Amino acid sequence: MNLIQTNLETMFNPEIVAVIGASDNSGKLGFHVMKSLINGGFSGKISPINPGSPEIWGLKAYPSINDYADRIDLAIVVVPAKLVPGVFTECVEKGVKGIVLITAGFKEIDDPAGADLHEKIAGIVNHAGIPVIGPNTFGMINFNTNLNASFTPEFSLLKKGKIALVSQSGGISHLLGFLAMRADARFSKIIGLGNRLNVDFAEIIDYLMDDSETGVIMLYMEGINHPMRFIEAVKKHRNRKPVIIYKTGSSEKSDQAAKSHTGSMAGKHEIYQGAFSQAGILFLDSAESLLDTAKAFASSEIPEGPGVAVLSGQAGPGMAACDVCEACGLKIVSFERRTQQSINEYLPPLALRTNPVDMGPAWYNASAQSGIVRSVMNDSNVDAILLLIMFASANVNLLRELSDFLTAFKQSKPIISCILAPPGVWDDEIRHLEEAGALVNYPTPEQAVRALANLVKYRSIQFCPKTNTKG
Amino acid sequence: MNLIQTNLETMFNPEIVAVIGASDNSGKLGFHVMKSLINGGFSGKISPINPGSPEIWGLKAYPSINDYADRIDLAIVVVPAKLVPGVFTECVEKGVKGIVLITAGFKEIDDPAGADLHEKIAGIVNHAGIPVIGPNTFGMINFNTNLNASFTPEFSLLKKGKIALVSQSGGISHLLGFLAMRADARFSKIIGLGNRLNVDFAEIIDYLMDDSETGVIMLYMEGINHPMRFIEAVKKHRNRKPVIIYKTGSSEKSDQAAKSHTGSMAGKHEIYQGAFSQAGILFLDSAESLLDTAKAFASSEIPEGPGVAVLSGQAGPGMAACDVCEACGLKIVSFERRTQQSINEYLPPLALRTNPVDMGPAWYNASAQSGIVRSVMNDSNVDAILLLIMFASANVNLLRELSDFLTAFKQSKPIISCILAPPGVWDDEIRHLEEAGALVNYPTPEQAVRALANLVKYRSIQFCPKTNTKG
Lengths: 471, 471
Known about the structure:
The structure is a homodimer.
Chain A: H1 3-12, E1 16-20, H2 29-39, E2 45-49, E3 55-56, E4 59-60, E5 74-77, H3 84-94, E6 98-101, H4 112-126, E7 132-133, E8 139-142, E9 147-150, E10 160-167, H5 170-183, E11 187-192, H6 201-209, E12 216-221, H7 227-236, E13 243-247, H8 252-262, H9 269-278, E14 282-284, H10 287-299, E15 307-312, H11 315-328, E16 331-332, H12 337-346, E17 357-358, H13 366-377, E18 384-390, H14 398-408, E19 415-420, H15 427-435, E20 440-441, H16 445-461
Helix pairs in contact in A: 3-4, 5-10, 6-7, 10-16, 11-16, 12-13, 13-14, 14-15
């Protein structure tokens, strides 16, 4: 492990954090960084640095890090760009192990002075082996240690889980975070790479592959300077953890914008897509799909194949699911004879007893529904179950009863579900089912099917067919 | 107007409703129908009918409708299928104006006795001109009169608005209703057609085109017996109100399932799609897209053309939007010179000042953002604005300030937005902006772009280019 990697480990798990540019003024980012650290519940020491204040956020502040007696593991820097070279020099002298550089105004600005400044500060830290996340980033969060080293305290509303998000855009990171709050997707780390002074996708992949808290790595990318270095980094760890990516730049306008925004090369979308797929990276086409798929990887086994059983509490959502299944390459299999016989015993002679199965007639009857799930789970044609249940006043108790069965039952195959109710009605039951590892839930049949299809697709782009990410 | 149409008007706006099969037993659908009527706030008279109880839900109950002295405008029927012929005969004798037949067990079951029963009850009511919604339906809701004539009281959680939902599936109706609660999409009516005894899509289109509460008609369809009758009904009202449709059956499995489930012909998806488009019906590919598009039609003008300005608070979501715009046929236009000059005055010399515009540098500055919106709104190349803003702790006040501008500003062109924050944080501001008609908001850039693209596509499939649905 090289020095950057060793220091990354320290900076993600620091005992002492300095905020250089800390502030009590809510108009300053240094205020929000302090708020993130304190409200996020970080248990280590926090040292605000600001020459203008003896106390910030109720903590003793220091004019510079040199005035702070103890060592500093992580420095979060929010001073104006022109002050960064001086601050970096002090960080090197102090032996700081890692830096989050939130400050903008480097390679991303039109003025060539920005690029010059970028080179200058890189020169200061690189020879010391100090990893820098940023510049031009919102920061990073390590949910395992409640370290919110970002200017957005609200990231701490997210729950701890197995998804690592690495992103080149603050906006997309915030979008994904806020969607994840609604979807109850859970994170190990969120890392805003910004302009990638010396910590690029390749370095982060190396780090996260060894991170025991992370089960799946989701990336948002606009453009990178050294795509082969990134691809080699992923290939090196092939089959250890799923790497999934959403990359903008498929349109001419966004490609141009990426070039400007991140100060890096963008380039032909199709070339990226092909190269990434060959490296075993799953290529996705939207932020929502990236999050949905990460959630599936974090909580579900990867199905052995594309054979799906569609079990729905009402016929319509089952049909909607079938359409998307077929479009996504999943197969609505025929059941084995004994499975079909079993279903026919549970359901009256209505038409939809073959796949898709409309369990509507067993609407009030959780034991019939449980029996159907059990039979289908044992069918060798079936690789995964799609379970689609809409709330109605008359079936309000169904999910609780079904939940008792599903959480006790040893699932041999993934259950991906769309179980939906008015806000607040089945939220606890769904959370319980997800936390028990009984299923992974989505708010629409389409999202459920696409997430499942992406699990199957991931297997197909791996060389080694058996991969297990479930913890 | 024929008798069915006249009676439809009465049954959607009844003064006296009988629930035939009303119950105090929560295991019966007759319980939930009573709950819907009472908890939904229906202000007319409710007459529970059940030979076994003198009082139901605290109201005097009658053995049969013949025992009820007053007239009955609407009868909601939830008795077992075999009792329906007798009940229908009584309804004819009583002069009931319309029936919601929730009972299942007709054409949709395997047993040919179901189809026979269907024909039998049709014979009873058809000559009397009594419209029947159902059988095999959850019911219908008229939000204008707080009439929840369904077995799902929770539909009354939805707010009154301009979208009419007509659906062949209870499951999809519930799915759409629960998604609409989260999306704050608002309804005039929700109608579950079920097996369509004598009220089919064509009759409902005729009715809703004259319904002053309805601004846009969204349909979920599995299959119909007389597609040309439906198409002619829509064509007859061409350009009066948008009709948008989501139809399952693109896959072999769902096509078969539709045939079984609804007791009707399904058939080639592409043929439907082509014929519907020719009739000016917008064809959509998912429940989410149907709802998102309905919400746009209900609250936005239809843009004059495909020219879009992408204004984002952070660069990433703007790029994501550009990719989807290009894929959906929208055009990221070049601004007129004076627009560009104005933007350049508001923003520092960062790269993303052309379209897409990254308003990040004006992050704390609502007046700069307002100025940019105003300039772009006046640009003759621009037909609509996409506004994408992610919350961050430091910009918490931005939306309130921007909101003051946007609600006071007379928008000449639609603003479709993706403004997103942690749950609860900007909800009030977004609702306020939507209620003021300032914008239509979605939780992802993709959804915002697709909804806008569907407005533009709708115009392109109309013969007459000017259509105004905004109330």
